[in-house]
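Ticket closed. Logging final result for Nitroreductase domain-containing protein.
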Amino acid sequence: MGSNVITADQWLGAAKHRRTVYGLKGTSSVPDSRVQEILQQVLSFAPSSYNTQPVRITLVTGEKHKQFWDAIIAAAEPILKGAGEQVWTMMSGMFQAHKAAYGSVVFWESGNSIKEAGETHQSAAHMFGEFGDHATGMHQILVWTALELEGLGANLQHLNAIPPVEAALKKFCGVPDDYKLKAHLNYGDEAQDHPQVPQKLPFSETLKVIN
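Final structure:
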């Protein structure tokens, strides 16, 4: 076997650098073409169970990103106002901050790919929804880490928690009906110091070694 170009410690250091960054500018020091290249690289090698490849990605940048968030806000406002003006006031401020970022990497799951995988591998059909979650999570962390290593900041949002938002974004992005919104990654140049790793539980609670 050939020698590894990248060590495990280097890889873990890169992964550790990734943090949730909320303070983002409406600019990107990284060209759209480079972000697209990163997305293509991740899609070319990121794993999925049985290599079913259920992950789909939409890249939204610049002025289109502002319109993307306008669609989110329009769909979410009636729901959040229904929960109370205080809720809407708090959430609308957060939405405006996200809108101020430069771009979004939108992660979808292809429903047809999940269905076809279940038909092909019937004994595991009941698992492919969960397998899809694993696959999209791995794609998300790889893209997120790569963008931050390029010098950008990013934060992961799950606006599918507000049901009308998914329909609005599917329409905005022009994706097939079988796509399911999983999450989207806001990104842009950082407008804050890069965050440190938060406090974690002790290993005595999270790790067990059997030998």
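The mean pLDDT is 94. No further action required.
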